[in-house]
C-alpha cells in the first residue's frame, strides 16, 4: 500500500497536470509540423531543403501565399526576409512544383491546427508560470544547470517536487527515476544491464535536457563524450541524466546552493596519467605505429 507521505500535495499534482498536458500538446504540435512539412514535398515543393525552419516568418509567408493561390516561384521567393533573401535563386527552384488546390486545403488545415496548439501551449505556459511563482528560487536553481531551462525546470519540479527529504540521498532519487542501471551479477561477474522502464514524464524531460547538455562545453558534455565512445549514445544520455538528477538533488536540498561547473577538463585533471595513456593509444591507432615518450630537452 502506498504511504500517504509519498502522495504529492495538491499544488504539485495540479502543476503536474499542467506540465504534462503542455508536453502532450507540444508533441502533438511537432507531429503536425512534420505533416505540414511533408505535404508540400508531395507537390515537389522542396522548401524545407532550403529553409531550415519553414515555420519562421519567411516560410509562413510563402506557405500562406501558396494557400492563397500564388504559384509563381519568382513571386514566392520574393517573400523571403532578411538572411533568407540570399537564397532567392535556390528558393525559386525549390518552389517550382505542382501545388494544387487540394494541397492548399490540407496545408491550411494543418497550419490552423499548429496555430491553435501554439495558443493553447502559450496559455498553459502562463498558467504554469503562475503556479510556479512560489517556487521561483527552485526554478532559478535548476535553470543554472546546463541543458535545463525554465520549461524543463518547471517540468522537473512538477515530477520530483521540492522536498528532497523524501530521498535520503541522490542515489534514491536517481533510482526512483530509473536513471540508475540495475546491478546484474552471475558467478561473481557483473553483466551489462539497463536502467529499466521508468516514468516517461521525468524521463522525457531528462532525456531532452541531457541531449542539450551534451552540446555545451561543460563537465556534463565531457561526461557524455567519454561514455558515448565506449557504451553508445543511449547509455551516455542515461549517464548524463543521472548526473542532472544528482545535481538537482543537491541544489534543491539547500535553497542557498548554486550550480558550479567542474569544467570540461575535470576528468583530465583528476587522472592526468590516464589521459596520457588515452592520447598515446589514440595516436598509435591513427598512425599504426608504436609511440614512445622521451623527456623533453
What does this protein look like?
The chain has 3 domains: 8-131; 135-264, no CATH class; 268-297, no CATH class. Helices cover 62% and strands 2% of the residues. It contains 13 helices and 2 strands. The protein has a two-stranded antiparallel ribbon with strand order 1-2. It starts with 9 loop residues before the first helix and ends in a 10-residue tail after the last helix.
Order of helices and strands: HHHHHHHHEEHHHHH
Biggest sheet, in brief?
A: 2 strands, antiparallel
State the end-to-end CA separation: 72 Å
- How many structurally independent domains? 3
Average predicted confidence as pLDDT = 89
Strand content: under 5%
Give the proportion of residues in helices: 55-70%
Catalogue the unreliable spans. 1-5
Strand order of the largest sheet: 1-2
Rg value: 25 Å
Total strands: the figure is 2
Q: Structural class of the secondary structure composition?
A: mainly alpha
Number of helices: 13
